[in-house]
Amino acid sequence: MVSKDQTLSVFHEAIKSSTADQTELVLDGETIGLTHIAESQIQQNLSTEDAVIIARTVTGKRIGVASTNRLDLDSVKKAISDSVDIGSFRESDEAFGSLPVAAGTESPSALIESTASFSSTDRANAIWQINKIADRSRLKTSGYFKTTLSRVAVVNSLGTEQYFEGAAGELSLTAANESGASGFAIGYDRDVSRINVGAIAESAVDKAVRTVDPVSLPSGAYTVLLEPPAVGQLLLFLSFMGFGSSTFVQNRSFMAGKLGEKIAGDNFSVYDDAYDPQMMGMPFDYEGVVRRRVELVTNGIAMGVVSNSQDAAAMGAESTGHAHVATKSFTPYPRNLVMAGGQAGIEEMIRSVERGLYITHFWYVNYLNPMKTMVTGTTRDGTFLIEGGKVTSAVVNLRMQQSILEAFSNIRMLSKQRVLYPQYSVVMLVPYALIDNFNLTEETS
């Protein structure tokens, strides 16, 4: 891994060679340690390291972007030169103002030693422990144990200089048998030593063991108790559909024209905060702008969206520090979502349900109508009936066809306990949620 000083030195020297009016260089690198398992066997146990350097140049209003995966001075200079050449063939972007002038910040390190030093042997030993637990119930395991070490540098010709290193561990586990019974559990933490491997294995195994002779239920509106992964999946898609500035500016977001208005229930609040102590997220974006905590929805009222510098200028505001690398064209979105919890315990929530469903997570979630926040997907790996305040029989998986905002308008209870859940480069801190009138349909072959 190239050091911070080496990276910044190469970037500053390379920018001196640029013939463009403005130049930006971004390093986006990561080292991944991955142990993948299937049928209780380790299929992969590997480590990979990769990095890309993205050059963005501005000449007049013409913008060029080029990249390289070589961090030597000549290669970075060539990426800048290529970017200038590419920009010369592009039309002027009259909406573009300027690269941001971002003050440097002392980034708190999230490169925790226990995670950085977690080896392939450590991951394999964890899998051995998991399989030992699953074997007691004659279950096979699948999933992965992964550690990621990331580093990002941003330097531009206007004086911006930022650098960040971080690490995280993630364990995703499914336990299953040949009859189709399965259970899922997941753990994530910046400090991999805090991932409770035994507890995750026990949770997945317990669900699989209880998935015996599942009953079929008719289509209808149900009271559902969603585990944090299921809540996180809904929150993630809600974020993609409405919490970014590009779709907001283009009036293609459910948040457009709704700021200050009620869009969900009083007990639904969510904000983006890279500085949350459980998150330890990157404190700046890929333009080098310091991230801000952004209130998205507070007590059901639409409050704001995250933005990059160009969208912020169009809104007459300042960037919230959520720009992607220049090679990505999709809308900015929150990377560190924190959803407010409640005061309830899990058992209390179950006891309050006369008849409903306990749902572990969803599978193949996809959009139906983004403006109405409608999504679909099936329940998976642990769906159970709740009767008379007790979790009883397993249930044949059902398909949701649900407006997420409608669901978050019907939250009856939220747990005090909140759990970190990662998906698609986003980390969410989410509670269990008890929701009324959740639309589920019977799957037909």
How would you characterize the overall build of this protein?
With 445 residues, the chain is of the alpha+beta class. A six-stranded antiparallel β-sheet has the order 3-2-1-4-5-6. Strands 7-12-13-15-17 form a five-stranded mixed beta barrel. The chain has two domains: 201 residues, PmbA/TldD fold, CATH 3.30.2290.10; 233 residues, no CATH class. It is built from ten helices and 17 strands. The mean pLDDT is 93. The radius of gyration is 24 Å and the shape is globular. The termini are far apart. The longest helix is centred in the N-terminal third of the chain and has 16 residues.
Percent helix: 10-25%
Cα end-to-end separation: 51 Å
Shape: globular
Low-confidence stretches: none
Short recap of the structure:
The protein has helices at 4-15, 73-88, 113-116, 120-135, 197-210, 228-242, 245-249, 309-314, 346-351, 404-407; strands spanning 22-38, 41-59, 62-68, 140-156, 161-176, 182-189, 220-226, 270-272, 294-298, 301-302, 336-339, 355-369, 374-387, 390-394, 398-403, 411-423, 426-442.
Throw out a few tags for this protein:
445 residues; alpha+beta; 2 domains; 6-stranded antiparallel β-sheet; 5-stranded mixed beta barrel; 39% strand
List the helices and strands and how they pair.
Blueprint lengths: L3 H12 L6 E17 L2 E19 L2 E7 L4 H16 L24 H4 L3 H16 L4 E17 L4 E16 L5 E8 L7 H14 L9 E7 L1 H15 L2 H5 L20 E3 L21 E5 L2 E2 L6 H6 L21 E4 L6 H6 L3 E15 L4 E14 L2 E5 L3 E6 H4 L3 E13 L2 E17 L3
Parallel strand pairs: 7-12, 11-17
Antiparallel strand pairs: 1-2, 1-4, 2-3, 4-5, 5-6, 7-17, 8-9, 8-11, 9-10, 12-13, 13-14, 13-15, 15-17, 16-17
Helix pairs in contact: 1-2, 4-5
